[in-house]
Design a protein that fits this description.
By secondary structure, the protein is an all-alpha fold. The chain has helices spanning 3-66, 72-161. The protein is built from 2 helices and no strands. Helix 1 (3-66) runs antiparallel to helix 2 (72-161). GO terms for molecular function: actin binding; phospholipid binding.
């Protein structure tokens, strides 16, 4: 096979293998990311439940203070406003937790297995096609060399005969 073609085939095949190896090496990183993301989401859900219970108790204190006479009534109103602000934070935390799960963790988890299968199939297909292409190139290169020799012999005969 021509050295230049051999070099190009090897370079392209090597590049493909490097990309495939990088993909395969990244799987543990993605899986770790998904595991940590799922743990974060779980902890956030727990935090939301505990925060909700705390804010319910806090609101009872505020309601109790609001229901009394004197200066504590104003303190109760301030506590109620503070509780409402914290409910707003709780609501945003719920939205974040839902988005984390539905828009990141769940879609990535469903794609991971598909990515592994596709990458494996790509690797197999590439190996098969690479071998076939190399064999075709070798055959055509060999055929070209044979034809060049025939042409050269024919030219030598013409020179001797002519």
């Amino acid at each position: 096979m021509d050295a230049g073609i051999e070099k190009e085939c090897s370079a392209l095949g090597g590049l493909f293998q490097l990309i495939m190896n990088d993909m395969k090496a990244s799987y543990p990183t993605w899986e770790d990311f998904l595991t940590k993301g799922a743990k974060l989401q779980s902890q956030l859900r727990t935090t939301i439940v505990v925060t909700g219970a705390f804010l319910d108790a806090f609101q009872k204190v505020a309601d109790m203070a609001t229901g009394t006479r004197g200066a504590t009534k104003e303190i109760g109103s301030a506590l109620t406003r503070m509780c409402m602000r914290h409910r707003s934070i709780e609501s945003k935390l719920k939205l974040f937790t839902t988005a984390l799960s539905e828009s990141l963790i769940t879609p990535l988890e469903s794609k991971m297995e598909e990515w592994k299968k596709v990458a494996s199939q790509l690797d197999k297909d590439h190996a098969k096609e690479y071998k076939k292409a190399r064999a075709d190139i070798k055959k055509k290169s060999s055929d070209t060399i044979k034809l060049q020799k025939k042409v050269k012999k024919g030219e030598e005969r013409e020179e001797q005969g002519g």
